[in-house]
Design a protein that fits this description.
single chain; 183 residues; alpha/beta; 5-stranded parallel beta sheet; binds adenosine-5'-diphosphate; binds guanosine-5'-monophosphate
């Protein structure tokens, strides 16, 4: 089986990972995206199998036990993970993006050291709160929990091969484009 180049994209909630990945994939139609599994509830507009595979906690645990995940982690009260089947599905693509949080990125670093690791950072610490509030998808309590996790994530950015600041989408995507084209 062909092994596509794997790009791990990590960064605190609200930094703009989803936004820059969408724009990047418009520039690189051959770049696949791994659809993660999660136990969190779908947000308005999120479609099962497209944005996430939405699983019950029991089904998630069953799949963990069956060895179906490349990596998985608990984040802000829910489980998230990358299914092996998603990498297989993208085997014929030029590359595949894993948009995952810090613990998952560390697991992939250990199991797939050839994967490129990119951290998306905010231009200022206040940006995260502004963007999470502006996105309007999370309750004030959920935003506070995400900002707490963000502190730990920001402290770990030095572990990453590349750090891309998402100041403007256009500039951040141009930098990601260079990293991906070089690989
Ligand atoms: P993440 O996937 O990292 O949680 P999103 O992609 O959902 O973040 O972005 C969070 C919010 O910030 C969204 O409302 C998005 O439109 C906005 N956003 C993303 N990138 C930028 C940017 N460079 N400048 C201003 N707003 C941005
Ligand atoms: P959200 O609930 O905002 O969609 O995602 C919350 C966090 O979970 C984000 O940091 C996102 O990158 C991360 N995440 C999404 N999918 C996965 C996954 O498959 N594995 C891991 N480890 N984290 C994930």
């Amino acid at each position: 089986m062909a092994r596509p180049a794997v790009f791990v994209i990590t960064g605190p909630s609200g930094v703009g990972k989803g936004t820059v990945i969408r724009a990047l994939r418009e520039k690189h139609p051959g770049l696949g995206l791994s659809v993660s599994a999660t136990t969190r509830a779908p947000r308005e507009g999120e479609v099962d199998g497209e944005h996430y595979h939405f699983l019950t906690p029991e089904e998630f645990d069953r799949r963990v036990a069956a060895g179906e995940f490349v990596e998985h982690a608990a984040y802000s009260g829910n489980q998230y993970g990358t299914l092996r089947s998603e990498l297989e599905k993208n085997a014929e693509q030029g590359g595949v993006v894993l948009e995952i949080e810090l613990q998952g990125a560390r697991q992939v670093r250990a199991s797939m050291p050839e994967a490129r690791q990119i951290f998306i950072a905010p231009p200022t610490p206040e940006t995260l709160r502004e963007r999470l509030v502006g996105r309007g998808t999370d309750s004030p309590e959920a935003i506070e929990r995400r900002l707490q996790v963000a502190e730990e994530e920001l402290a770990a950015q030095g572990e990453f091969e590349h750090v891309v600041v998402n100041d403007t989408v256009e500039r951040a995507v141009a930098e990601l484009d260079e990293i991906i084209s070089a690989a």
